């Protein structure tokens, strides 16, 4: 599957073997993964991260809704991940992103997210994309709002409440 997303500063591309080490550093940070999925009290181990990257890589090779590595064009460094994936037990497609601590606060999540939403609506023809976020994740809520998403309702995810934001195709 070819990767559909490029911005002025970023490239979202297929996964390669060299992506594993930077992802181990990103997902090994407990603060970074605090709100990922069901929420983790500790960072991922190197083995857990390798398995996660392998699952994402496999999904991207077979599906148009997947999470891609985000590469900073200026340096070629992997600074995070962003993309789309189906929400379990739902018809929803969710936008998701995780960025390295040093990449936060620079507008990369909004830039990558905007491009992923354009891909979702213009290329895939999706009618709606959701974001599920823990109420305590203020940084992610700010990104979601900058992407133009609006609060919809509280939902149960991983046996916890999450805020559901939506954006419809324009």
Spatial shape: globular
Oligomer: single chain
Radius of gyration: 15 Å
Q: Tally the helices: what do you get?
A: 5
Largest sheet: 5 strands, antiparallel
SS-derived structural category: alpha+beta
The chain-level mean pLDDT equals 92
Q: Helix and strand string, N-terminal first?
A: EEHHHEEEHEHEE
The share of residues in helices is: 25-40%
CA-CA gap between termini: 26 Å
Q: Tell how many strands the DSSP assignment holds.
A: 8
Q: Tell me the β content.
A: 25-35%
Strand order of the largest sheet: 1-2-3-4-5
In the predicted model, the low-confidence regions spanning at least 5 consecutive residues are none
Please specify the SSE layout and strand pairing.
Elements: E1 5-6, E2 10-12, H1 20-27, H2 30-33, H3 46-62, E3 67-72, E4 78-86, E5 93-99, H4 108-123, E6 128-133, H5 138-146, E7 150-157, E8 160-168
Antiparallel strand pairs: 1-2, 2-3, 3-4, 4-5, 6-8, 7-8
What does this structure look like?
The protein has 170 residues and is an alpha+beta fold. It is 32% helix and 29% strand. The protein contains 5 helices and 8 strands, in the order ββαααβββαβαββ. The strands form 2 sheets. The chain has a 5-stranded antiparallel sheet, with helices on both faces. Strands 6-8-7 form a 3-stranded antiparallel sheet. A hairpin with a 3-residue loop joins strand 1 and strand 2 (10-12). Helix 1 crosses helix 3 (46-62). It is globular, with a radius of gyration of 15 Å. The model has no long low-confidence stretch (mean pLDDT 92).
């Amino acid at each position: 599957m070819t990767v559909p997303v490029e911005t002025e500063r970023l490239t979202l591309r297929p996964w390669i073997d060299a992506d594993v080490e930077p992802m181990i550093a990103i997902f090994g940070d407990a603060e970074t993964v605090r709100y990922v999925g069901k929420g983790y009290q500790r960072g991922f181990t190197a083995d857990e991260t390798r398995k996660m990257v392998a699952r994402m890589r496999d999904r991207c090779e077979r599906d148009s809704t997947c999470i891609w590595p985000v590469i900073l064009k200026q340096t070629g460094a992997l600074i995070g991940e962003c993309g789309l994936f189906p929400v379990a037990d739902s018809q929803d497609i969710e936008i998701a992103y995780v960025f390295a601590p040093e990449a936060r606060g620079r507008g990369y999540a909004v830039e990558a997210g905007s491009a992923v939403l354009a891909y979702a609506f213009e290329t895939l023809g999706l009618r709606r994309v959701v974001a599920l976020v823990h109420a305590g994740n203020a940084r992610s809520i700010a990104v979601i709002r900058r992407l133009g998403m609006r609060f919809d309702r509280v939902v149960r995810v991983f046996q916890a409440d999450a805020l559901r934001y939506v954006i419809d195709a324009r």
